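Issue 218. Parser rejects a valid record. Input:
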Amino acid sequence: METEEAGGETIVMSQGVFVFQEWLDIVNKVGVEYYPERTFPKGYPEITEGGLEYKFEYNTAKERKILGLTYRSKEESTRDTLKWAAERKL
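Output the parser choked on:
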């Protein structure tokens, strides 16, 4: 990824903060579409009940403005990964 406008800039590249439990919640929500016979680890879903309040977030304004980057959501990424694995019978 190179663009002249990024020369000499420090750019934070991140979709955002998360706790691992969010991924487990999503896998349990969408995983049945690709693995109906499988049970996924539940973790501690009470951690994410009612939403999360993050103590910090990354300023990604330069990333969007200079590089034009956007990210897929956690759910899209998880769904795509599970679909990819299921197609390969993993």
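Fixed in the parser; the record now loads. Residues 4-87 form one domain.
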